[in-house]
C-alpha cells in the first residue's frame, strides 16, 4: 500500500482525498516508479478543484509531472535504480499521475533524469520549464537575435513565464515581463533577469489591428485579448511562441501583423513532444539555468497541502513553482 491523492466525482463535483492505495490498483505500464517529487501546474489546479474539464475518467491521481526511481521494469531501456522524469502524455488526466508515492507508466513517456539535476530540481523545472525551453527555442529558431530588441513574456510570474524570463536572460536577450502583480512580483522577475516590468492591465485594453512596433519577439502564456495586443506590437519579422490560454482560448485579432509585418506565430506543445526533442530540451535546460534559479521562485509542500495550493493557483495567487515531496 502507498499514499496517494485521489480525485473522485460525486454529484458532478470533484472530491480530492488522500488515501492508501494498493499497487494492484495502478494502471498498466512498463515501468513501476517510486515517486520522489511531483509538482503543481495550473492544469493540476483545474483538475483538483474541478474548475476545468481536465480529468477524463475517475478515480484519478492527478499530477502531470513526476520524478523518481525505477522499482520494476519490463522495458530494456530502464533498469531498477534508474532515475527518470516524466512530463505530459496525458498523465494525471487519463492515466494516474505523480501525486502518489508510486506510479506505473509507459517507458515511451519517460526521459532519463539528467545527471546534473536532482529530483527536486527537475520538478522545479517540470512541464513548465520544458514548455518554456521549447518556447525560447522557437524564438531562437525564428532567427530573432538579442540585438533585435526586447522579448516580451506574458504571465511572467507563473511557472512557464518565470523560467522563460530566466532562459532568455541567460541567452543575452533583454526581457520585458508582464505580470498582474507588478509591485510584488517585479523584484523577483528582475532577479530572474527581466529588464522591464509591465502591469498586465496595459495588455487587457482592446487591440488595434496594428500598433507601434515594440518587441522583437514574445512568449505568451495567456492568449485571448492579451495575445491580440502582443501581436499588434511585434516588430517586422518578429516571432511569437504561444503555449497557454489562462486568459481564454479565443484570439480577437486580424491578419494584419502576419501579412504586413511578416510576424510568425508558433504554437508550442510539450505534452506529446517526441522523445529526442524532449531530451534535447532537458539537456539545454541543465546548461542554461543558473544555480541561482534553484534558490528562488519555488515552494515545497506535502501531499496534505496540495488542495489548498490548487485553489490558490487557479486564482493566480502562486508565484513560481510548487514542488510536492512524496
UniProtKB/TrEMBL annotation:
It holds the Pfam family ADH_zinc_N. Residues 13-324 form the Enoyl reductase (ER) domain. It comes from Photobacterium phosphoreum. InterPro entries: Acrylyl-CoA_reductase_AcuI, ADH-like_C, ADH-like_N, ER, GroES-like_sf, NAD(P)-bd_dom_sf, Zn-ADH-like_protein. NCBIfam families: oxido_YhdH. This is Oxidoreductase. GO terms for molecular function: acryloyl-CoA reductase (NADPH) activity. PANTHER family: ACRYLYL-COA REDUCTASE ACUI-RELATED (PTHR43677:SF1), SHORT-CHAIN DEHYDROGENASE/REDUCTASE (PTHR43677).
Amino acid at each position: 500500500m502507498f499514499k496517494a491523492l485521489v480525485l473522485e466525482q460525486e454529484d458532478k463535483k470533484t472530491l480530492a482525498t488522500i488515501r492508501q492505495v494498493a499497487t494492484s490498483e495502478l494502471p498498466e505500464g512498463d515501468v513501476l516508479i517510486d515517486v520522489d517529487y511531483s509538482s503543481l501546474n495550473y492544469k493540476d489546479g483545474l483538475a483538483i478543484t474541478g474548475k476545468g474539464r481536465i480529468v477524463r475518467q475517475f478515480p484519478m491521481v492527478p499530477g502531470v509531472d513526476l520524478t523518481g526511481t525505477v522499482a520494476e521494469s519490463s522495458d530494456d531501456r530502464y533498469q531498477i535504480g534508474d532515475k527518470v522524469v516524466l512530463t505530459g502524455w496525458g498523465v494525471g488526466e487519463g492515466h494516474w499521475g505523480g501525486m502518489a508515492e508510486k506510479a506505473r507508466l509507459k517507458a515511451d513517456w519517460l526521459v532519463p533524469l539528467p545527471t546534473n539535476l536532482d529530483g527536486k530540481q527537475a520538478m522545479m523545472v517540470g512541464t513548465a520549464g520544458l514548455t518554456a525551453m521549447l518556447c525560447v527555442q522557437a524564438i531562437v529558431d525564428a532567427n530573432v537575435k538579442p540585438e533585435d530588441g526586447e522579448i516580451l513574456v506574458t504571465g511572467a510570474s507563473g511557472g512557464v513565464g518565470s523560467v522563460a524570463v530566466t532562459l532568455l536572460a541567460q541567452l543575452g536577450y533583454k526581457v520585458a515581463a508582464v505580470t498582474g502583480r507588478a509591485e510584488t512580483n517585479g523584484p523577483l522577475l528582475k532577479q530572474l533577469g527581466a529588464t522591464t516590468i509591465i502591469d498586465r492591465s496595459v495588455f487587457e485594453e482592446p487591440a488595434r489591428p496594428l500598433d507601434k512596433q515594440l518587441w522583437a519577439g514574445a512568449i505568451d502564456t495567456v492568449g485571448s485579448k492579451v495575445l491580440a495586443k502582443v501581436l499588434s506590437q511585434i516588430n517586422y519579422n518578429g516571432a511569437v511562441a504561444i503555449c497557454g490560454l489562462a486568459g481564454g482560448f479565443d484570439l480577437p485579432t486580424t491578419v494584419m501583423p502576419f501579412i504586413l509585418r511578416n510576424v510568425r506565430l508558433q504554437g508550442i506543445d510539450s505534452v506529446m513532444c517526441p522523445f529526442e526533442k524532449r531530451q534535447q530540451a532537458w539537456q539545454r535546460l541543465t546548461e542554461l539555468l543558473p544555480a541561482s534559479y534553484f534558490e528562488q521562485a519555488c515552494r515545497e509542500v506535502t501531499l496534505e497541502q496540495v488542495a489548498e495550493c490548487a485553489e490558490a493557483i487557479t486564482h493566480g495567487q502562486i508565484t513560481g513553482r510548487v514542488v510536492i515531496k512524496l
